[in-house]
Amino acid sequence: MTSTTERTDVSPTSTTAAGLAAPAGPTTLDALEAEGIHILREAVATARKPVILFSGGKDSVVVLHLATKAFWPGRVPVELLHVDTGHNFDEVIEFRNATVARLGLRLQVASVQSYIDDGRLRERPDGTRNPLQTVPLLDAIAGHGYDVVFGGARRDEEKARAKERVVSLRDEFGQWDPRNQRPELWSLYNTRHLPGQHVRVFPLSNWTELDVWRYIEREGIELPSLYYAHEREVFERDGMLLTPHPSVKLRDGEATAPRIVRYRTVGDASCTGAVESGAASVADVIAEVAATRITERGATRADDRLSEAAMEDRKKEGYF
Amino acid sequence: MTALDLTPAADAAPVTSLLRFATAGSVDDGKSTLVGRLLHDTKSILADAYEAVERVTRERGGEGVDLALLTDGLRAEREQGITIDVAYRYFSTPRRTFILADCPGHVQYTRNTVTGASTADALVVLIDARHGVVEQTRRHLAVAALLRVPHVIVAVNKIDLLAWERAPYEAITADVATLAAGLGLEVTTVPVSALLGDNVATRSQNTPWYDGPTVLDLLETLPSGDEIAAALDADGARAVASGATPASAWRLPVQYVLRPQDAAIAPEYREYRGYAGQVAEGVVRVGDEVRVQPSGRRSTIAGIDTADGPLESARAGQSIAVRLADDVDVARGDLLSSVADAALPTKHLDAHVAWLAERPLRVRDRVLVQHGSALVQGLVSGITGVLDIALPGGTLDASIVPGGELGLNDIGVVSIVLAQPLAVEDYGTHRRTGAFVLVDPQDGGTLAAGTARAAEPGTGTDGYLSV
Q1: For residue B148, what is the nearest residue in chain A, using CA coordinates?
Q2: Which of A245, A271, B378, B420 would disulfide-bridge A302, Cβ 3.0–4.6 Å?
Q3: What fold, for A28-210+311-316?
Q4: Domains identified in chain B, total number
Q5: What percentage of chain A exceeds 90 in pLDDT?
Q6: Percentage of the residues of chain A whose pLDDT score is greater than 70
Q7: Is a pLDDT exceeding 50 seen at residue A12?
Q8: Which of residues 140-199 of A touch B (CB under 8 A)?
Q9: Can you give the residue ranges of every domain in chain A?
């Protein structure tokens, strides 16, 4: 019997949500995990030198977790790369280093600070370093000869990302051409590229923020502590709660106060805001995310507020 | 705003199933509005995104909220007021999570409809009730038929502009039914007003003559690919439990050979050898006989492994690794399959091809054929014909007109000679192992979507040849 005749035997009534809501049925997380593992295996198998962008942020942590499953019982056969803005939270760097050591992996760090120190990059007037990551990222890709670069970006994060392929071609300048993307058919991912080009690969393309958190809960994945509620000295600027940091100096009229906060994303401390939250556990965070009325980036990322097309413009230049 | 604004009605309970669907329509059919309406009425739009759209609508001199703006993500799209590229949207109801591939309507972007439809459990096609079935409708239904999308929902939109009358809707439904019958499609039509929300997520008070489901009702209840696979798995487990032999057709393309040696995470895995891949079809069980394609060698499944532990069986969609009982040669690009119904590998590929590149496809062109995890060289040996999208013959096969080359968005019947044999199967019965893409051997670009056709018995050169 072929699968098609079997398919027609399955009547709609027997496979409605009510009929198949039994625990044995495939969950959304099962499907997303299987897809992510498939993407990782496919891209690594066709890569000359793959790399996973790893910042210690929750999405990159989940990508790395999927990689450990995809290549079990071997170590992840991929290097990690962190583009360090020099503005990272200490907890995140500690977490990053501990994770790399635990899994026995090799970490490369591209330092924005060293680019600023030797004059290749100039500090922006607003102090934000996220846009400065692009050049060190592209130099690291070219310098190490990476041809397949895994990132944790999700399509639900932002409107321009919603149009990005799972496997996304970058030219010699790292540029993304949104009007000339390859069609991506079935689960047949095309990672081919010319010398000098590379592909970015996004195994979490189809995940939402809630999926990521539910998966973190299901798998018991450890995250940097600042994802969970803690007391912190913060002050308000441009509608965001920032924490004092060597990169974030208080201006006239700004004063800190202790509040119970957590971070929804952990990027550059100068432009990543905290949210007031009492969510101290994964379950608390899931309840909060499920109920939240503000998108992840809109609430806490100043760099995406620069213009309606801020992300599209940065992506075209080779950003993550 | 810094504090999170919590709504008490939100549902944090895990949802159990995932449905992938795509949308397609002509320019100005209101497709972006329908998608915006689905997102809005399922409370999937977050406050800041909604406020941004409200602000932009106002800046452009509009009133209220232009829901189409929610989905147009690229600068050029917003400037031109059209959708250029497939946009993926994610939303959920208490019954399901959805992955929506929102495909553009312009003819020149039809390749994106092919992209969105290739992974879809269902396709939603928009028709403007004032215009009825137009060429793009035929094109989208032809794509659905070519890619064997299991269910098509035709949303007959803008019925509010026809004073909610029944007759025009019935006339369009009849036209669609005729087309669907010829194409072998399972189609449901729904009268909707995407702008006002009627019969999208909520039943309309304006169409008392319609007692069928809303678009969302259909999306929530159609069987998804994952659910069908799970049902097959459960049937098989029951058969095994009762001592019977379960239906055993399955396919597993080998993506990666797991041989950790010095990189093993623990000493006991040093000599581990597993063949990793995502089950493409059916249910594979420990103890099943295996045929390795294209070599034809045989073995038995000794074990099914995941990082979370061993499994007794694995179904379509699951990413696993299998161990074989015998030391046979297996590499990436091979296809493991159940023995009884294993296809014979062939060097002659006869297929429908949807051509997605600017440059034309001509006879004697060299291409790469990507099938499962295999990539082999191919030479286009013949282009038998091109599909007339007006579907004058009523069916795909009867609407093929003679043609010597394929241009952008053409669908043609093509023969390809392969450098190495592939176990390509009839797409009509094997949606995964019948699918392939054509890749440009020079720049690596994706050129075409291909669906293999069963060889006509006795046609000689098009037949599947044993190696």
Answers
A1: A4
A2: A271
A3: Rossmann fold (3.40.50)
A4: 3
A5: 57
A6: 83
A7: no
A8: 155-156, 158-163, 178-179, 181-188, 190, 192-194
A9: 28-210+311-316, 224-307
